[in-house]
Amino acid sequence: MTDQVTFPDAVQWAVPFFIAAILAEFLWIAAKGRGGRYETRDAVTSLIMGAGNITSGLLLGFIAYAFFMWLWQVTPLNLGTSIPVIILCFVLDDLRYYWVHRFGHRIRWVWASHVNHHSSQHYNLTTALRQTWTYTFTFMMVVRAPLILLGFHPAMVLFVGGLNLIYQFWIHTEAIGKMPRWFEAVMNTPSHHRAHHGRNARYLDCNYAGVFIIWDKMFGTFVPEQEDDRVDFGLVHNIGTFNPLRVAFHEWVGIWRDATQPGLSLRQRMAYCFAPPGYSHDGSRDNSDQIKAKHIALHPEDRGTPGFERFQPEAPNSEAKQA
Amino acid sequence: MPLGILLVLVIGGIAGITLMMHLAGKSRITQLTPDSAKAAWLRHVPGDEVVDVTITNDGHTALIRTPAGNGLVWSFGADTVARHLLDFDRLDRAEGFEIRFHDFATPKVLIRLDDFERQHWQNLMEPV
Predict the structure, then answer these.
(1) Is the pLDDT of residue B100 over 80?
(2) What is the CA radius of gyration of chain A?
(3) Which residue of B has its CA nearest to A53?
(4) pLDDT at A185
């Protein structure tokens, strides 16, 4: 099945908007004296990461596209390019994004690509552009396969994926507090995504949504931003470099060093590659579950609160029960 | 979008935003105080016990002593980074000590020390 369906590269066309919005946010913060922070080297690193992301797409995008076009040859289905189909594709692709993003936080191999997006201790519109250079090597393009096999043209799937990324640009800001309640209930917002970028124990592994926050609510990963637990942006172990090459590749180097240590079993080597970030064969590191458990040990009053639901408040002792 | 226009936008955008931020004073490096250095350490190692904090005269690096050993907190732009002093090399430099962490993501930090501080810091950083 072949045809000549074309869609614009939405992300490239959004570049002027990105630049204008960053200028506007910067000036707004400067004028108001609140609503976020900017730091020169942090922002420049983020912008270079964004430029590198576009470059890697130009250089390596053919690999994913060739895979998608092969799937398109295989599938007997073709849903066409009508507006309702594009909207349906957008919604289903957002579900795809949720799962890729969740894998990106729970599988170290994918985290190695995604970690750079979380490596800034700032949260402003430049952070949105701090994007991966190595996504191709995660092989997460396979998660898009069902969409194409269902009859959504690859060009359309990539187009709506671009729209998804553009939507996510504006939510990387502290300048916006909360949106109207109905909007917060359905859509991903600056508040929800701030929580996602938090390194606080409460906010680890939450709010993976791209556009619709409903996916997190459906799959049990939603944590609302708490007024009494201000989001601390960055990584659990913040990195000490602004060098874009180190930002882009540091976790891959970490995987290599960990998995090639002498004396490990094959299972341990595989776990360093694919287990949740924080795995160690000797217990010298903590994953997010262990970090949350340690937090609860220090702050038992947080039991049962958002982000700590699995740590239920301690039951009254047996005497109290009998009474 | 034509590649030439995209290149001009990206390079021009990065250069313009960088210049604007620098001129607006956003390149300043954060200054540590004993309290802020302690807070930065506890942000990195929640629940740890800080025994003592020693800050360089330039206010950009702090040595943190804990029951489990020493650590460093240093200014990282407007923020801070902290590391335990476990697996590292200390190199003498004209400006002070260069600490190499054997970590691709945090390769090194330069502790700027004047002549009066150097000996004191050397003593502090010696393994007990």
Answers:
(1) yes
(2) 21
(3) B10
(4) 98
